[in-house]
């Protein structure tokens, strides 16, 4: 596997890298306890900003798959965003106190990192790029670098071409489906 290791629990794979789906599914197999009944996917973002649509796009793809049996919170129809994140965290903790949460979100980064999918053992800090104070969420984080950080982040997310988050969401969803299929066999 050619996934780049950045710390003990951080991996990067470019979405266009040869074999990205297989490599990402292998990482998911190593880090996601698919045999637990309390596995929940938080797909964070909004459909009102093209750059921030990675989470809801991924959530929609996963929730439409009959072969993916896990709860998915955050889709294009029902986004998981700043206004309802705490409510969904509270509901999930009440319904599944021992839930293992995989948080998926878009992020901004260096120009050379655009297109990278990041896997991190630990919570995601949604809204950080745009200066929002939101609760960290997730036991495992999957982030997609959709554009460049550093200046006018709201405008950068608004003007990001939809093609990149769309393609990255397809890679993430396919890799999760493949990882679960590989786990079952």
Give the SSE layout.
Elements: E1 4-7, E2 10-14, H1 20-31, E3 39-43, H2 54-63, E4 72-73, H3 85-95, E5 100-109, E6 116-121, E7 140-148, H4 153-158, H5 163-184
Parallel strand pairs: 3-4, 3-5, 5-7
Antiparallel strand pairs: 1-2, 2-6, 6-7
Helix pairs in contact: 1-5, 2-5
Structural class: alpha/beta
- Kindly, what is the distance between the CA atoms of the first and last residues, rounded to a whole number of angstroms? 20 Å
In percent terms, what proportion of residues is strand? 15-25%
Supply the CATH superfamily name.
HybD-like
For the largest sheet, list the strands in their spatial order. Answer: 1-2-6-7-5-3-4
Number of helices: 5
How many separate structural domains?
1
In terms of quaternary structure, what is this?
Answer: single chain
Structure explained in plain terms:
With 185 residues, the chain is of the alpha/beta class. The protein has one domain (4-184): 3-Layer(aba) Sandwich (Rossmann fold). Helix content is 33%, strand content 22%. It contains 5 helices and 7 strands; from the N terminus they run ββαβαβαβββαα. It has helices at residues 20-31, 54-63, 85-95, 153-158, 163-184; strands at residues 4-7, 10-14, 39-43, 72-73, 100-109, 116-121, 140-148. Strands 1-2-6-7-5-3-4 form a 7-stranded mixed beta sheet. The radius of gyration is 15 Å and the shape is globular. It starts with a strand and ends with a helix. The relative contact order is 0.22. The model is unreliable at 1-8 (pLDDT under 50).
